[in-house]
Write a structure and sequence with these properties.
Alkaline Phosphatase, subunit A, 13 helices, 3-stranded antiparallel beta sheet, single chain, 2 domains, alpha+beta, 20 strands, globular
Length: 454
């Protein structure tokens, strides 16, 4: 539905913090018809002039809950049984780049990935702020995508600059971490629900219109356009409000969200959405379709798309939860392997691999020792980040941990280094500062990219 709600308080850029705009389940925090922040953004762009559009983009794949590095990308087959676990490593097409046997598709194309095994984190609980902002929760920093949107606000665009796929599937973690804060409410992510587009409602007395199929999606977008044409007061005000409405009802947005435009072969490459038997917190359904949607969005010109999939907080059989880390991983890892391999393959086949950078990670790793419940617990001292595309130097492993996977034995890298690398890919100086209440604050607190990738 199209809704205006929330506090009228403003950020330092004087963009109203008026709630959110929902378009058929598509939410954009801070965009409303009364005092639209998007028209304000468009007005500011016009005043600043038009910058050349960069084709560069980032797809950030977040695995909420913290996946185990021991059971995926940093296996320790020679460690004692209570550390090495039940899975065995498999060789890849890159020497020394072994990974879990449950990920054969990635193993066959490891030359298209770069793996950082020496990641470290600061936040010990399930706050995803380090993934999405580079800082722990207490620092109060805007999301990476919001920063990119803010720094590119002078560029004209036919689509929002920041999409979040997973925002509603992980409301306690992803939604809280992907906030624009002092970047400005107009730079919040557009966030389709993981279960598809739900409703579309205009202000006033108009009844809700429902999206029950992809065909209905197209019909209802057209219906919104006709209703705006019939009721000119909806678009009244100035040219910027009209431009904002044109953006949200444009065929480009509708087409980008319409997966039926893909061939059966391409949809088959990604595979179906999957409901797991072992349900733990959020992430019960794996949306392979979101990986395909992410590719469509960056191809349409969106510079930042985040994809958050699966529940990876594998403590084992605790608090009524069924399934050890190994039982759950046998369900999750094969579908994850297929989705990620499909995305990277698709980007390469379309010639987008140099322009689109992909990073995969969670908020930390897991403890070396398997607990008494058949799981692994939170662990910030070691973890991984996996890169693809972006023109990065792939086919390599960067860094290492000790024999138990308990700590890096090489230079450790942290979330700010990951985000600095992504900012650099997008043509943004990682040393850039944003103003918050008159104070200049760095977009990361360590502006050094991961040198081995460049």
């Amino acid at each position: 539905m199209l809704t205006v709600a929330g506090s009228p308080s403003a950020y330092c850029d004087r963009v109203s913090r008026r709630g959110f705009l929902r378009i058929g389940g598509l939410q954009a925090c801070g965009l409303g018809l009364a005092g639209l922040s998007l028209p304000e953004l468009l007005r500011n762009r016009a005043a600043a002039g038009t910058a050349a559009r960069s084709p560069k983009a980032v797809i950030m794949v977040c695995l909420p809950g913290g996946p185990s590095h021991h059971d995926t990308y940093d296996m320790k087959p020679d460690a004692p049984a209570n550390i090495r676990g039940e899975f065995r490593p498999t060789a890849t097409n890159v020497p020394g780049f072994d990974l879990c046997e449950l990920m054969p598709r990635q193993a066959a194309m490891a030359d298209k990935f770069a793996l950082v095994r020496s990641m470290t984190f600061r936040q010990p609980d399930h706050q995803l702020h380090e993934v999405f902002t580079g800082f722990p929760l207490a620092a109060g920093r805007p999301a990476f995508g919001s920063v990119v949107s803010r720094l590119r606000e002078a560029e004209r665009a036919r689509l929002p600059k920041y999409f979040s796929l997973g925002y509603f599937d992980h409301p306690r973690t992803v939604a809280k971490a992907e906030q624009p804060l002092y970047a400005g409410a107009g730079h919040a992510p557009f966030a389709p629900t993981g279960t598809g587009l739900a409703t579309l409602t205009l202000p006033g007395e108009l009844p809700p219109l429902r999206f029950d199929s992809r065909v209905e999606l197209a019909r209802q977008f057209d219906g919104l356009r006709r209703e705006i044409d019939r009721r000119p007061e909806l678009a009244a005000g100035d040219a910027y409000r009209s431009q904002a409405l044109d953006m949200i009802t444009s065929p480009l947005l509708r087409d980008a969200l319409d997966l039926s435009k893909e061939s059966a072969a391409t949809r088959g490459l990604y595979g179906p959405d999957v409901t797991f038997q072992h349900n733990y917190q959020f992430g019960h359904t794996w949306h392979a379709s979101n990986f395909l949607l992410a590719r469509r969005l960056v191809e349409a010109g969106v510079p930042v798309v985040t994809v958050s999939e699966g529940g990876w907080d594998h403590h084992g059989n605790v608090s009524g939860v069924r399934g050890t880390i190994f039982e759950r991983s046998r369900e999750q890892l094969p579908v994850y392997d297929r989705s990620l391999a499909a995305l990277v393959t698709d980007l390469h086949e379309r010639g987008l691999d140099r322009d689109v950078a992909v990073v995969v990670w969670g908020e930390f790793g897991r403890t070396p020792v398997i607990n008494v419940n058949g799981g692994r617990d939170h662990f910030t001292r070691a973890g991984f980040a996996l890169f693809a595309g972006g023109g990065f130097r792939t086919g390599q492993v960067i860094g290492a941990t000790d024999q138990f996977g308990a700590a890096p034995t090489t230079r450790p890298y942290s979330p700010p280094n990951v985000l600095a690398t992504l900012y650099r890919h997008l043509g943004i100086d990682p040393a850039t500062k944003l103003i918050d209440g008159g104070r200049p604050i760095g977009i990361v607190d360590d502006a050094e990219p991961i040198a081995e990738l460049l």
